[in-house]
Amino acid sequence: MDFFDLIDKRRSIRAYQARAVERNKIDAIVNAARLAPSAGGLQAYDIVIVDDAELKRSLADAALAQDFVAAAPVILAFCADAGRNESKYGKRGAALYCIQDATIAAAYAQLAAASLGLGSCWIGAFDEAAVARVLRAPPGIRPVALIAIGHGAELPERPPRRPISDIARHGHF
User: Fold this and answer.
1) When you count CB atoms within 10 A of the terminal residue's CB, does the N or C end of the chain come out lower?
2) Residue 10, exposed/middle/buried by CB under 10 A (0-12, 13-18, 19+)?
3) What backbone torsions phi and psi does residue 39 show, to the nearest 5 degrees?
4) Which domains does the chain have, with CATH numbers?
């Protein structure tokens, strides 16, 4: 599929078939995330692959009781590592660049999942401290996005999007 068709057809999927995602597909998705650009090439993030039912249930609870999180075959938790960027970029690296690194990697993971015929959903609504506890994240590691992945059991319509003229400007506001 052409890249622009892939972007056009990708949807947030919240219902999944009750079948496992093939390990080679998860590996390919994680590798695509690994290839994403990052500040200074430091890749200031970690990806936790969660496929254990009990951990997924705990993540769903931490994600403000979004039950579809527990039903997804796999959750990829993208966590920013402030320390990896701070040594090179100081406070801005610790506060921003690591977040950008993690979110760019997560976006690549979503596109990779779509290219493999899988559904995914970005989950940003969660109790950060609770997710960190579930993942046993060490100090300095901050969960910033959860990506649910599985074989989709729905195909929602595209939500309305703002016209390009509303979001893109030349030179200034």
Assistant:
1) C
2) middle
3) -60, 120
4) 20-155 (3.40.109.10)
